[in-house]
Amino acid sequence: MVFSISIGDALMLAKIAYTLGRAFTSGRNSAPAEFVEVQNLLYTLSESLKLLARDLPERSENGLLQSEGKPNMAEDGDTILVHIVANCRSTLTYLEGFVGKYMELDSGNPVEASARIGERWKEEVRKNWKKLRWTTEGGGLEKLKTMLNAQINGLDLALSALNRHHGKIVHERVDTMHTQLDEIYQWFAANLKGCRAAYASETRETESSDGMSARSLNFVVYAQLPGSTQRVLLCPKGSLNDLQTLDDKDAGGRTILGCCCAPSTSLSNSAMRGNVRPHSWQLRFSLLPVSFLICSAEPHGHREYQIYAASPTSNVPMLVYITKLAPTDLARLENYANELAALQAAHHAKQGLSSMLLHPSRTNFGEESMSILAMKTDVSDLIDSLLSLRFVANGHHFTQGRVESFQLLHFKSLPTRYLRSTLHEACTGIIYQQYAELVLHCNPSSSSATRYFVQIEYDTPIKRGDNPQVANLGDVLCVAEGDHDGAESVQQIKCSALELEFLSMLAVEEFVDRIKAMQRELFILYLQYPRLGEQVVYQRPIGDLMVRDFYLTDAGMSVIRNPTTGMYRLILLNKLHSVSVCFENIASGSLAAADSLAWFIQIDSESTSIVKQPAEVSFTLSTLGQTAPLFQQDQINEPGVKSPAVEEC
């Protein structure tokens, strides 16, 4: 069977139906009781659409959803399903506009970003709901309920037909696989039974100074094939090869990924055809000038890394994904990403190369540095939904029309004085910028500016505007680049608001969620690392530590001073960088933190937790049964205490 129904369309309609159901929930106190029935029907329709998206076949090469049924099967059922989904879309689109027209903000209830909880029905709806046109045909509320019931029943019947068809296909596949496995076993019994299979291991096991295997950092490796958006699993237990032996001369000739699977499990599917190829054969990726290990900040705290690399099987760079990283490996992967960034920065500086990934810049103190892409949040799929931009500054506003593309990027800086240092020394000089950049590329014919750089910090306010299809960024610094009278021009302005208008409310919610995902990562960097202009006055390892319910293994302590305010910060970070406690606003001359705030951060492979609490703890450390001060003010300049020199960031 061939369906012209997109899985994404079904999920989008499911979310719209759910959101509309929430709208009827929010209006329950100011609307008739009949709204409860509509609300329940919308929730049921949302679940039916989710089940439809789950049970639809995968997308084929021609862009249609296709299953492996017989070609002469009746296509009338396909047409009916298409009509059912089209009717759902028409009904929900009309109802979405209806809700947007007849609901208003509830001044006594704050607005949530995910639903219309902070809104209520207008007074005219409560009084005249029987006279309003609830459907495209002009029907009343009863007609709307009838339509929703019919669509739900139609979807249920279509799902039942799909499941029966899929069950028949699965049964046929199992019979085929059973026959093939029986043939394979018969061949094995006749040719290889009793013989030992030997495979040459292509993995190296080296021992580090602490006795741990250099390949103990494991993760799942996927690749995105050129011209496709689908990911292909390459290895369930990949690893990173050591960068310490690479320099900017031979970086392009060495592979960066390895396989830690057992020889019996590291064979690709081609092994069934007699061509034995372990996962390491598929992981023959080497460095390119555009190879940077970039963290992908995603909603819900999910974190993964990606890198462009050269593959002998492709003429174009391939995008490789590193996912499902254990929390115990976070620090090692961050360090590897910084070492790779330092290696590539030295190579770019020697060759005079510059790109969006890495380019020369200057710090706020005028020091020459290299800006290197460290993190991104993918917003490219929202470009078709972005209608226009509106800049508001000093009481004036300017509207920019069509946007060709936009990206959400975060950079780190490496002063050029570290380019000749070792990789380890260079990593100590890396500074994370306190803001991310929303980069918007515009059509040069629509205005003199072709690119806009909008700086977004961890506390930049973002909310939905009066129009539910508008996202509003407040108090942002905008830099516009373009061609003015034949010369390149750069203009910088502080905007009180940047309004981005999207095609739908769902697109606005997706955009806001991704901005907040980036802000979450910026806030973690803001808490865990020295900020621009701060001084690291004291550092020391403190071993295992228990603070509240947080257990920090092999932790390190950093005391940081703000020269402008004279206030201190205390950062406790475990060796794995997965758990940290950050104490803010400690007064000068006294490090008792009773009145200070504490941020408790915990990161795992699927989520990130950030909790703010009053500190209410004293800085003491139990050593050999005795209580000793964790830090004393006079230790900063005490001759007998080893502490690093004051370092300005």
Concise summary:
With 649 residues, the protein is of the alpha+beta class.
CATH architecture descriptor name of the largest domain: Roll
Structural class: alpha+beta
CATH class of the largest domain: Mainly Beta
Q: Spans of 5+ residues with little confidence (pLDDT < 50)?
A: 59-74, 111-116, 195-215, 247-252, 269-275, 619-649
Number of contiguous helices: 9
Topology:
Blueprint (H helix, E strand, L loop, with lengths): L1 E2 L3 H20 L7 H22 L9 E2 L9 H27 E3 L13 E3 L1 H6 L12 H51 L27 E6 L6 E10 L16 E3 L19 H4 L11 E4 L5 E7 L8 E6 L6 H22 L6 E5 L5 E10 L8 E8 L2 E5 L2 E13 L7 H6 L2 E12 L6 E9 L4 E3 L5 E15 L2 E16 L2 H24 L6 E13 L2 E12 L6 E6 L5 E8 L10 E7 L4 E7 L5 E4 L2 E4 L17 E2 L1
Parallel strand pairs: 8-12
Antiparallel strand pairs: 1-2, 3-4, 5-6, 5-10, 6-7, 8-9, 9-10, 11-12, 12-15, 13-14, 13-20, 15-16, 16-17, 17-19, 18-19, 19-20, 21-22, 21-29, 22-23, 23-24, 24-25, 25-26, 27-28
Helix pairs in contact: 1-2, 1-3, 2-5, 3-5
Q: How would you describe this protein?
A:
- With 649 residues, the protein is an alpha+beta fold.
- The chain has 4 domains: 2-170; 219-346; 354-528, PH-domain like (Roll); 535-648, no CATH class.
- It is 28% helix and 32% strand.
- The chain is built from 9 helices and 29 strands.
- The protein has helices at residues 7-26, 34-55, 76-102, 123-128, 141-191, 279-282, 330-351, 423-428, 505-528; strands at residues 2-3, 65-66, 103-105, 119-121, 219-224, 231-240, 257-259, 294-297, 303-309, 318-323, 358-362, 368-377, 386-393, 396-400, 403-415, 431-442, 449-457, 462-464, 470-484, 487-502, 535-547, 550-561, 568-573, 579-586, 597-603, 608-614, 620-623, 626-629, 647-648.
- It has a 16-stranded mixed β-sheet that branches. Strands 26-25-24-23-22-21-29 form a 7-stranded antiparallel β-sheet, covered by helices on one side.
- Strand 16 (431-442) and strand 17 (449-457) form a beta hairpin.
- Helix 1 (7-26) packs parallel to helix 3 (76-102) and helix 3 (76-102) crosses helix 5 (141-191).
- The longest helix has 51 residues, at 141-191.
